[in-house]
Amino acid sequence: MGGNALAPYGARRVTAVEYRKYKKLLYEKFGAFLETLVTPELNISYSDIPYYSTKPDFGDLDFLVTGITNQDVLNFLGYINCSVYQHEFSKKKTYFNPPQTYSFLFEDILQVDIILVPEEDFYTSLIYYAYNDLGNLLGKIYNRMGLKYGHRGLTYSLTTGTEKFDEILVSKNHDFIYGFLGLPFDRNKYLIDKSIFPDLNSIFEFVKKSKYFHPDIFIYENLNHKNRIRDKKRNTYRLFLDHLKSTPILKPPLDEFFSNYFPTEEKKLQILFDYFSGFEESYKYSLKERDEQLRRRDMFNGVVINEITGLEGKDLSLFMESLRKNSEFESRIYLSKEKFHLWIKDEFDNLEKPNAL
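and the corresponding structure tokens:
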């Protein structure tokens, strides 16, 4: 995604009229290519990304596809006489960014990005990527609440300290994803007649209607390093910040604003559990899995096994690997820590040559 990758090779911005012409041609060629596939059981979906209706020009055409393989994309690019044999710009003006996005110069003018997604993520991706930075802006609000809104839908990260243990799916239903923010969602207007946003200003005003909107969420100082670098390069994001400056809204300080809604982490989770069906069950299951993993790490790690056996380095690694492969390991690790460690000691003592592991 992003329309500058092929600029040195002839890609340029095109007018809305040109864009519609090339989009129609792409659909025709892609549809004709699909007819050459001899796998009728494939469930193939594809679509360009919706945009606001008065958008004057375009740097690229994002084309979302599910139900085909990477090799199918390569075959399609061959079908229209493009080449992706290199992972960098090739002499045939094609760029391949594996494994999900293929960028190529279409009709020697327009950069097209074919974006492959799993079937279950097709519509969530289509909605998230639609209308310029709308998904990104709403994602910033959710991020402030400790959630992630992206191409998979709405997710929650369960961590062990600074390490992410699991990304739990909260919802893929945009009626609920938008509804939690206090925003309406009309699937027909979003994806079929595409009439919901006439211009960028209408997108900005829509974001500001969220019950959890606060202008300070979006300032660069409140973003992490990765998002700060990325969003500074996004023209729509910069325009949104300019819009916020020109239409100031008085709010309490950011932390105070959110603490009024979510005074504690426990209260926030309960609100989410009550709103998003199935999230509480998924959260508790993942929490149980995380706690079990932490228990196993505490009982079975290099430091503990070194204290029991005195082994170090390669000998330690080989002995631990032999224990993992032992048919009794999975049943033994559910014993008390003391009994489990006694079993390890017995296994070590029964080795004839532990230094020859």
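(Above: one complete record from the training split.) Residues 84-91 have pLDDT under 50 and may be disordered.
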